[in-house]
Amino acid sequence: MTTPNPTAAASADFPVIIVGAGPIGLAAAAHVLERGLTPLVIEASDQIAASIRAWGHTRLFSPWHYNIDDAARRLLETTSWLAPDPDTLPTGHDLINDYLTPLAEALGEHIRTGTQVVAISREGMDKTRSAHRAETPLLVRITTADGTEEDLDAQAVLDASGTWHQPNPLGRSGLPAPGEAAASDRGQITTPLPDVLGTDRNRFANRRVLVVGSGHSAANTLLDLAELATEAPATQLHWAIRAANPSRVYGGEAQDELAARGALGTRLRHLVEAGRITLHASTVITGFTPTETGLAVTTHTPAGIQELSVDIVVPATGFRPELAMLQELRLDLDAAVEAPRQLGPLIDAEFHSCGSVAPHGERVLAHPEPGFYIVGSKSYGRAPTFLLATGYEQVHSIAAALAGDRQAADDVHLNLPETGVCTTDLPGPSALTLLPVTATATDCCAS
Fold first, then answer.
1. What is the DSSP letter of 125?
2. Does the pLDDT value for residue 10 go beyond 60?
3. Quick one: DSSP state of residue 404?
4. Does the pLDDT at position 425 exceed 50?
5. Range(s) within the chain of domains with CATH label 3.50.50.60
6. What is the pLDDT at residue 384?
7. Superfamily of domain 6-165+319-410
8. Which member of 21, 194, 256, 267 lies 3.0 to 4.6 Å from 262 by CB, making a disulfide possible if both were Cys?
9. How would you class 191 by CB atoms within 10 Å of its CB: exposed for 0-12, middle for 13-18, buried for 19 or more?
10. Average pLDDT in the 66-75 region?
11. 346 CB neighbour count, 10 Å cutoff
12. DSSP-derived 3-state class of residue 319
């Protein structure tokens, strides 16, 4: 059933502005375009998929058929694009080269790069004004590469800007540990998912390395470091987690429907059991102090306060959303995970312990601000385990709603592979769970 959308009707001359040219942002543009509306994707970097480029060396454990959006595929099939083998596992660079770049070319003038969104509001009114709010266009303030500011009107806005640039701190209580910022400035704390076997090789070879985190980002980095250590035998590997044991990271192993994801846990477990990786369980970082030979990491453990001497630390502690640019919008966020309120309980890692994420679309993602949505990994707030397939279903539903097709907007489906693990091993309430979120996290079972 098709019903009129008052916000879209009142602002029909304005585009649907999409913040971020990653996989979900570009998929959103394809869905919006297919619905007869005008998308405008605004990307801060001078290239699309800037965050994926940072971890492009990493291979996904989901094959291609989970990673291509349906509307994007239909648009690409009108070009000379050759679809990749649906059963192969792409790297992040493959995702860009074989899918996202051709998709961006097909979208053409609907993408504007080198442009930063600094604020989103409502034309002529702040968040305190209610009269005629739904009929008034949204306002998107941008800054171009040369520093010029400009205001754009929009019939709707989808924030698909992601969370890559907002990593969680390494310290306890959700706060940076004393000395953490200084250690990062000195280069002793890296960015997440460094290219251990490639451009960052010399940074890690024959060094004492500490990886902090208990998810697939940590596992990928540890496996790469273990491979490096076979060629640079003086490399020492330490792994700190807050949980009492790493069973959640090992996952379903042979029971996982994604073979590559299951193998990830099995390989990591073997390395720990063989002593090639020193595991520090039930460990909370409370400080960083530079030394003459490297970095002293102060930790709280069941055995008391201990100090670990390392050269470099790799954070794999997850991410959180940047909300400052949304302060003039009426948002309704879950108090715990900072996701849309209706979505929060479905993805909260403290309670969501097994099985696939429930399908959800426009109704669940809606805010009190008409026509505004947070989509993609940012829609999960601080929760882990976001999937590309989840984001594609989100933007399919929202585009349908914006076009007035309520029936299609409510017809949401999500078929995710099981992890084969249905247990949880969360730390106590005094510890901050370290759960990674990346743009490609394809785990469907948070613990």
1. B
2. no
3. T
4. no
5. 6-165+319-410, 172-315
6. 80
7. FAD/NAD(P)-binding domain (3.50.50.60)
8. 256
9. middle
10. 96
11. 19
12. strand
Which residue type occupies 140? V
CATH topology of domain 172-315: FAD/NAD(P)-binding domain (3.50.50)
**For residue 86, pLDDT beyond 80:** yes
State pLDDT tens for residues 378-419: 999 998 878 899 999 999 999 999 999 999 999 998 766 554
Task: Please state, in angstroms and rounded to a whole number, the distance separating the CA atoms of residues 68 and 94.
Answer: 12
Q: Report residue 193 as tokens.
A: 């998912």
**Beta carbons within 10 angstroms of residue 387's beta carbon:** 23
Pairing of strands 304-310, 115-122: unpaired
The HSE-up count of residue 142 (CA atoms within 13 Å, CB side) is: 24
- For residue 120, give the amino acid letter: I
Helix (H) or strand (E) holding 61: none
Q: Can you tell me whether residue 8 is helix, strand or coil? A: helix
Q: Report the chain's mean pLDDT, rounded to a whole number.
A: 87
Compute the distance between CA of residue 320 and CA of residue 323 in angstroms, rounded to an integer.
9
User: Three-state SS for 210?
Assistant: strand
Numbers of helices and strands, H then E, in the chain: 15, 15
Sole residue written with tokens 């919008």: 329
Write phi, then psi, for 86 (nearest 5 degrees): -65, -15
Cite the beta strand spans of 316-371 per DSSP E. Answer: none
